[in-house]
Amino acid sequence: MSPQQAGENDAENDARESRSREVAGAVSGSGADGAGAVLRTHVFDAADLRRALTRVAHEIVERNHGADDVVLVGLYTRGVALAGRLASAIASFEAVEPALGALDVAFYRDDIGLRPVAPLGPTEVPDVSGKVVVLVDDVLFTGRTARAALDALLELGRPRAVQLAVLVDRGHRELPLRADYVGKNLPTRSSEDVRVRIAEVDGDDGVDLWGVPEREDQPR
Amino acid sequence: MMQHLLSVDDLGGRAGIESMLDLTDSFLEVMQRDIPKVPALRGKTVVSLFYEDSTRTRLSFETAAKRLSADTMTFSVSNSSVNKGESLLDTVQTIDAMGVDAIVVRHAAAGAPHRVASWSSARVINAGDGCHEHPTQALLDAFTLRRHRGPSLDGCRIAIVGDVRHSRVARSNVKAFHALGCELTLVGPPTLMPERLDGWPVAVTSDLDHVLPDVDVVYLLRIQRERLGQALFPTLREYAARWGLSAERAARCKPDTLVMHPGPMNRGIEISGEVADSTRSLVTEQVGNGVAVRMAVLWALLGSGGPIV
Predict the structure, then answer these.
(1) Which residue from A111, A130, B108, B281 lies 20 to 30 Å from B39 (Cα-Cα)?
(2) Contact B29 A122 (CB under 8 A)
(3) Whole-prediction pTM
(4) Cβ contacts (< 8 Å) between A4 and chain B: which residues?
């Protein structure tokens, strides 16, 4: 069994994160990952991505009047790498480097049993009680991963506040959630696929938008 | 994808066993949290169907299910309709009609869990069937050993000592340890060895003292006192003298040789109390890891793989 279940590599599982979840979960064959998907737009190159993260780092510090009580908690896989980048960026202009954590939300997902779900890495979160936790992920889409992350986080302690930072907000929310910090607001069709690359995971930095030919697109 | 876990063979060889051990790491981490519980199997129902006595295996499965937020039901023969003559088939059909998702079966008859699997729509886990198999024990032993000798167990030399003939633990562990690359030696009186070992990837000896200095792990099996009447060995005292791991014998092992036992232990027979409580002994760790392994198995059968077909 396990070749399917735990043998999925992170990149594959994470690619699924950033793609159309309702498509992946319910209707097969019409996702942008399917045959015929083509590159639509280069959204970010490495320099754009760095600038966006630098701005988000400043916003986090500004909003929280410093970084003393801030804990950056990344969601596997790329969110963990992004949280590390944000911590380094904050350390470069503030006196302190925020504490870091990594969160796996597999066991809190609401689509268990609807599609293959596998844990992506060990949850390692420092004491968050009384702290401001900034959850960090690459793409905000339906909001279901963020919902699972809130449940997972709140069982580990009682933060003073929880905020959400994402590199790309692509819209199509299915839950009443919003991000506090956004690297890029990117209007998309639900059939399209936002592909984020982070050097720590993928070898280089960038964000691309992929899609299938027009007739496949669902109007929104 | 694995439908049932009836035998170590169902895990899919080395790759399958290793990915199950990797998954177990995730659940060990969950168990170390202040709230050691995740909602992964909310709404699922797991039934333990135990036709034989068990403390650690049944509690371990039930704890595992609860920590995954599954509902649990326990069926033990002593207070069931089995005492009114209900057959295994009727019992399984009754349980099945209640709409359960997994059945954990322990039975004195080899193959009973296979029959249950053929009668029920639920996933079936073998928690020990007669002298046949006990796959989750093999997984937890491999997991425990990997934490001490891992990540690879290639070339790890293991002596499995005692009543191999009647041991489902030995059968499952030989398969799992061999799949992971370990070198195995079975040790015990010839009367306690299987009549045929054709195809078993093992060496066999009756001389424990000869193998002790060379092995990395001494895996002791429980002497099943209920078999004493079969005159397979003269007395418990003589067994202990020749095949029991006393402190003196343990001193002849390498300093880092580990001692394992599936429990329950007969202190003073197959293992001395001193050895059981020594730093070599992984016995309590084996029990603790049992819960994490069973969480991984339940998750793999009920949670990870998408719709049940």
Answers:
(1) A130
(2) yes
(3) 0.87
(4) 1, 305
Measured between beta carbons, the chain A residues lying within 8 angstroms of B15 are 2-3, 7
Of the candidate ranges A16-20, B155-159, B206-210, B247-251, the one whose mean pLDDT is the lowest: A16-20
ipTM of the modeled complex:
0.84
Residues B154-191: tens digit of each pLDDT: 999 999 999 999 999 999 999 999 999 999 999 999 99
Q: Which two tokens stand for residue A78?
A: 């790329």
Q: Per residue, what are the HEC states of B148-172? A: HHCCCCCCCEEEEECCCCCCHHHHH
Q: Is A127 on the interface with B (CB under 8 A)?
A: no
Cα dihedral B228/B232/B235/B239 (nearest 10): -110
Residues from B in contact with A at Cβ < 8 Å: 1-2, 10-12, 15-20, 22-23, 25-26, 29-30, 33-35, 37-41, 68, 299-300, 302-308
Compute and round to an integer the Cα radius of gyration of chain A.
17
Q: What pLDDT sits at residue A28? A: 36
Residue of B nearest to A7 (CA): B19
Token readout for B275 is 């050895």
Whether B30 and A151 lie within 8 Å, measured CB to CB? no
Tell me which amino acid residue B258 is.
Answer: L
Q: What percent of chain B has pLDDT over 70?
A: 97
A115 touches B: beta carbon within 8 Å = yes
Domains by residue range for chain A, with CATH: 2-23+44-213 (3.40.50.2020)
CA A129 centroid distance within chain: 23
| B224 pLDDT tier (thresholds 50, 70, 90) | confident
Q: In what order do the strands lie in the sheet with A181-185?
A: A99-103, A70-75, A132-140, A161-169, A181-185
Tell me phi and psi for residue A34, to 5 degrees.
-75, -175
CA A70/CA A93 separation, integer angstroms? 15
8 Å CB contact between A167 and A139: yes
pLDDT (0 to 100) of residue B78: 73
Residues B99-154: tens digit of each pLDDT: 999 999 999 999 999 999 999 999 999 999 999 999 999 999 999 999 999 899 99
Enumerate the residues of chain B whose CB falls inside 8 A of the CB of residue A119.
23, 26
C-beta pairs of B32-35 under 8 Å, 24+ apart in sequence? B33/A123, B33/A155, B33/A156, B34/A156, B34/A157, B35/A155, B35/A156
Q: Which CATH architecture is the domain B8-134+287-302 placed in?
A: 3-Layer(aba) Sandwich (3.40)
Domains B8-134+287-302 and B136-282 share a fold: yes
Fold of B136-282: Rossmann fold (3.40.50)
Residue B63 has pLDDT above 70, yes or no: yes
DSSP-based three-state secondary structure for B86: coil
